[in-house]
Specification:
The model has no long low-confidence stretch (mean pLDDT 88). It is built from 2 helices and no strands. By secondary structure, it is an all-alpha fold. Helix 1 crosses helix 2. The longest helix has 29 residues.
Amino acid sequence: MVELIPREVRRKLGWSGLLLLAILAVGTIGYRVIGGAGAWLVACLYMPFITVATIGSGEVIDLT
């Protein structure tokens, strides 16, 4: 059987995906701690996402 994606590439993609999820999780937790009780969980997830995706469409959570 012919593999469409070699095993080594699938392994690297899997680790890359896990690393991305870990970065988003840590960023979400960080924004939740910094933002306090007023920060919504969706907004806390949105902030690291726009940073990682290099969109940068403005701050949702006031960090001052």
